[in-house]
Amino acid sequence: MANVIVKNLVKRFNAVTAVDNLSLEIHDREFAVLIGSSGCGKTTVLRMIAGLEPITSGEVFIGDTLVNDMEPKDRDIAMVFQNYALYPHMNVRDNLGFGLKIRKFPKAEIDARVQEAADILGIHDLLERKPKELSGGQRQRVALGRAIVRKPKVFLFDEPLSNLDAKLRVAMRAEISKLHRRLGATIIYVTHDQVEAMTMADRIFIMHKGTLQQTGAPMEVYLKPANLFVAGFIGSPSMNFIEAKVIREADAWWIDAGEFKLRAPAAFDARLEPHAGRTVIFGVRPEDMTAHDPAAGAGGGNTLTARADVVETLGAEIFVHLTCGALAIVARMEAPEQPLTEGQTVDVDLKMLKTHVFDKETSQTIV
Amino acid sequence: MATTRIGKKLKTIGFYAGAIALCVPPLFVFVWMILTGLKTGVQNISYPPEFIFVPTLENFRAVFEQYNFFHYLMNSLIIATLATVTSLLLGLPAAYSIAKYRQGRIGILILIARMLPFVSYLLPWYIIFRYLKLIDTYTALTISHLIITMPMVIWLMVSFFESMPAELEDAAMIDGCSRWQSFIRIVLPLMRNGIATSAIMSFIFSWNQFLFSLILSGPQTKTVPVAVYNFISYGKIDWAGIGAAATLIVLPVSIFAFFVRKSIVQGLTMGALKD
Predict the structure, then answer these.
(1) Cα–Cα distance, A196 to A168 (Å, whole number)
(2) Subunit contact A85:B176, Cβ cutoff 8 A
(3) What is the dihedral of CA A72, A77, A83, A85, to 10 degrees?
(4) How many other C-beta atoms can be found within 10 angstroms of the C-beta atom of residue A97?
(5) CA dist., res. B226 & res. B217, Å (int)
(6) What is the distance in angstroms between the Cα of B179 and the nearest Cα belonging to chain A?
(7) Given B165, B177, B189, which is nearest A73 (Cβ)?
(8) CATH architecture assignment, domain B67-270
(9) Predicted ipTM?
(10) How far apart are CA B8 and CA A13, in angstroms?
């Protein structure tokens, strides 16, 4: 196993800069997830680490070796592709063993390793089949198996689950996590699906427009997003962003959105002070809003009144699309005993300690 | 209901009528050729033409005995095989790189070479090959046939290569292949249909090629189409001999094409429909 270090990586396609001076370090045995919306350069980074894409400038190290000028085959990596890329003219057994055969492993060793991978993935019955005779989930297992038999230093996954249906995806997610624990391998996993990132990653690397936005453990990036992009990208439904002014009133800092005014917790004071009187972006996650508790009474400074436009019921919880003047806000809360009706006016409490404030100009997080 | 059934029937009748109308003229020529080979010289020039007669195999015997036709058949076979193999050896990597590295311009250049009137090649080639003392050799004939077979291989195969997902090669390279290894072990096996189609087409076109063979061959390397041409002399035209010889030329390729027709159709339509 090995760590992977990327230093000042740049990739240009003619005039377009796909990856812009990206540096990151992935630790040995870490499950790292590169995430970002499509076109953010995450797959390009993966392909440069794999050696499938020439590097414009910068350095890639696998272990302690600079691999910039190494062929993919010499980098000791394995890759799982989005469309599986199984060799259509070979059966599953030959697909699994191909990488070893081409590296001139002895036949007994190949057989043993194929057997082992088949054991791990439960694909014994499929060994003699051709890829076209397999279902999507089975193909995905074979693709995983082809990576496992090689026992590489680093596993690279390029959106491996995006061609599977939702149910299978959940199952494979757990399976890949298990596999990671079992193999103790370094994994770099590219996805645009934040659920995959949150559930599987040791650390998430969030990319946007070819640059790295934030690195951290899943809960860390969820709780402490570094900027507006990360805040909006992680979490579902996404965080609500409201333009507001920071004002001082009655010995406290307030977030004044025009339609409503919220009292910032004392813990925010020091960081809000330099922004007094300025317009900022106030952010609150849908799940940090609850129906107003009448027992708490009014005047807590954390309640806003809005009209429920659309109520989406998901069973245990509901998504409420609220309108507050010109502002649209989504709240995600427990389904109340008395169902909300659309058009009804509701009071919503915000967990103010969990809210965020972002600089409008720099997009960076203030609180 | 009744009207739609009648309509359907009319459609079927129309379809077969059209198909027959299209097929009869070329088939008639074909049948006429075979009949000519089976008639005697006198029967062949009689008017009105005879359709009922006692067939004779005398012409076929004569073709082999008098004209040494077996030698020409072997020449054709050798040259068509050499031309096909050479154009695959050179054309497959060429088509691959045109497809892979988007070298459309080189592709066009090759197409232009193919589209130039063949007559324009004749004089320079004759001079060059004579200078190199290659007239009446398999080398000269094979090289000249490449101008026909290689563009065909390249243009057929480019669309095949383009239809192959790039990830397969990526996977092969990561699995441990060099670019050549991935080409030979992954790409080529997947191109079986395309390679078969282009090989068959190359072979047929080289087999049928007349003009280059006429000018560049000699007594040693004469191919069958040229040999048939020699049946026409100043004094007379040996129709019966031509008929028998032409049947012998057409027969191998026809039988061949009949057995591989599925793969030809598949191959010719595959590039058009990406799945």
Answers:
(1) 13
(2) no
(3) 60
(4) 25
(5) 9
(6) 10
(7) B177
(8) Orthogonal Bundle (1.10)
(9) 0.86
(10) 56
Size of interface A-B (CB pairs under 8 A): 59
Distance CA A364, CA A229 (A): 9
Query: Shortest Cα distance from A160 to chain B (angstroms)?
Result: 13
Look at domain A4-225 and name its CATH class. Answer: alpha beta
Q: What Å distances lie between residue A171 and A37, A120, A134, CA to CA?
A: 23, 15, 17
Chain B neighbors of A51, CB-CB under 8 A: 173-174
Instruction: Tell me which chain B residues have a C-beta less than 8 angstroms from the C-beta of A52.
Output: 170, 173-174
Token pair listed for A135: 């279902």
What are the chain B neighbours of A103 within 8 Å (beta carbons)?
Answer: 176
Chain A residues with CB inside 8 Å of B167's CB? 81-83, 85
Spatial CB neighbours of B177, under 8 Å, sequence gap ≥ 6? A73, A102, B185, B186
The chain B residue lying nearest A151, using CA atoms, is B175
Distance from C-alpha of A136 to C-alpha of A126, rounded to nearest angstrom: 13
CB atoms within 10 A of CB B22: 10
Cα(A35)–Cα(A204) distance, integer angstroms: 7
Closest by Cβ to A52, choosing from B170, B175, B189: B170
Mutation pick from B102, B174, B177, B182 vs chain A, by most beta carbons of A within 10 Å, is B174
CB-CB: which of B165, B176, B190 is closest to A89?
A: B190
Which CATH topology does A240-359 take?
OB fold (Dihydrolipoamide Acetyltransferase, E2P) (2.40.50)
Query: Going by C-beta distance under 8 Å and a sequence separation of 6 or more, which residues neighbour residue A276?
Result: A246, A247, A248, A253
Nearest to B174 among A50, A83, A87 (CB): A50
CA A162 to chain centre: 13
pTM comes to 0.83
pLDDT in tens, chain B (275 residues): 566 788 889 999 999 999 999 999 989 998 888 888 888 888 888 788 877 888 888 888 888 888 788 899 999 999 999 999 999 999 999 999 999 888 888 888 988 888 888 889 889 999 999 999 999 999 999 999 999 999 999 999 998 898 888 899 999 999 999 989 999 999 999 888 889 889 988 998 999 899 999 889 888 899 988 888 877 777 778 888 888 888 888 888 888 888 877 777 776 665 444 33
**Domain residue ranges in chain B:** 1-56, 67-270
CB B205 within 8 A of CB B150: no
Report which residue type is found at B14. G
| Nearest residue on chain A to B166, alpha-carbon basis | A85
Spell out the domain ranges in chain A.
4-225, 240-359
The DSSP annotation for A156-184 comes to: EEESTTTTS-HHHHHHHHHHHHHHHHHHT
Summarize pLDDT for A207-257 with one digit per residue, the tens. 999 999 999 999 999 999 999 999 999 998 999 999 999 999 888 899 999
CA of B148, closest CA in chain A: separation in Å?
Answer: 31
